[in-house]
């Protein structure tokens, strides 16, 4: 079955994961087919025609596996099943078939760093110090007077060690105590997770998005993490960001694990391995691996993290382009289920500029369900919050619920998402902001996304062409995408005020083919391009 197709992109056509647009579905919130207020697999099938119309061609599903849902599916109790809330394995097979029938791809979330505390592996591990699976997790003796093994903190706040009263040892959990970390220094854990990957790859899934890839293995000596310089937090706050996770994440040994995952993936034709990695660029790019032996796409989250500032973004794009290893394929992510939505972060007008940036940069774009209609974070009353991150740090305003609300399909009582009250509330504005209305409106966010995606699909210059920065200043950034036949100028005003593109000794004659100001479409450029506030445009240049 060994058919490695991605070692020589220079002499073959680009691969699907390089030219596709990835669309992340948070399954609880996309479409509910059985009327229980929670999205499911049958619901997703119902909406595949919409996704096909939109032009996205790869769907990534957040976890659909059996789970006690302490972290909404990222606490898995069976890696080879489907949670009854989402449907059955037959429903999954049907979804996969329907996705493939439409020429699209399906990627699953793989969560190898931790399991649920209800996973049989952990139940067995915790049952006794002598359990054959004891070493599958990270167990440590208490120090003197019951002291914690080290100073590591949980991403969700508090200590990362939980004492098991029955066996009187601590286990490590980077996230919730219901999410014990696996011990990847144990080869049996490798084997078990490789079996999981084979199970889904054999079924025909097109790849994995690997959860917290940079967390998977920890320092062998479990040394204390250093304190961040000038931290705004106090030691007693027990806030994760108080430390630099130097010993609990991004360890040199992680790369052998990612190589193992890549080797497994490579045993199947044409699959993709994506890594969720929040690290600075120079570290992120190491996850491509020597000779591209690791992740195909280490997720690039810069657009989620950087201030919305044209100079900083221009610099970040250049830094990234410059840092990529030979033939390392770039990618860009604009939203996900862990971060505020783009329209809430930068406002609705700038969200269009952001869409244009995402869909014209070089590299595979990933968009988050609902961003294509400009969904905003929904205010959720305290007593309706369910995300553990929000619940455990109530004074930090970090709940992820607002960005996980149901997809707004139409003006029906529950926005066409469900026949009954959804698990998270809808915003009052859903009667204005929904797919059905926006599809009919040529000026809508959805129509804008549609035209950008269509352009990307039709013009290879955007999918695989060169990227050349042209200009950036305090308001705008501009770049060219081109191949042998076509040349396009992208100009984005990241400010609310008008500005000129002032290129040195360059003229940009051509036709405006997409603009946030529909009135300009079809017009020719003048030499000095003048932009309105919040305007983004694409010019087809005369070569
Ligand atoms: C990253 C996931 O994206 C997030 O939703 C989850 O809470 C953590 N990993 C823990 O699994």
Describe the structure.
With 543 residues, the chain is of the alpha/beta class. It is built from 16 helices and 18 strands. The strands form four sheets. Strands 9-8-7-3-2-1-11-10 form an eight-stranded parallel β-sheet. It has a five-stranded antiparallel β-sheet with strand order 12-13-14-18-16. A hairpin with a 4-residue loop joins β13 and β14. α6 (187-203) packs parallel to α7 (254-266) and α12 runs parallel beside α15 (445-458). 1-deoxynojirimycin is lined by residues 71, 74, 111, 175, 211-212, 276, 337-338.
The first-to-last residue Cα distance is 45 Å
| Derived structural class | alpha/beta
Morphology: globular
How many strands, which pairing sense, and closed or not: the largest β-sheet? 8 strands, parallel
Mean pLDDT: 95
Organism: Dyadobacter endophyticus
Protein name: Alpha-amylase
Pfam families: Alpha-amylase
InterPro entries: GH (IPR017853), GH13_cat_dom (IPR006047), Glyco_hydro_b (IPR013780), O16G_dom_2 (IPR045857)
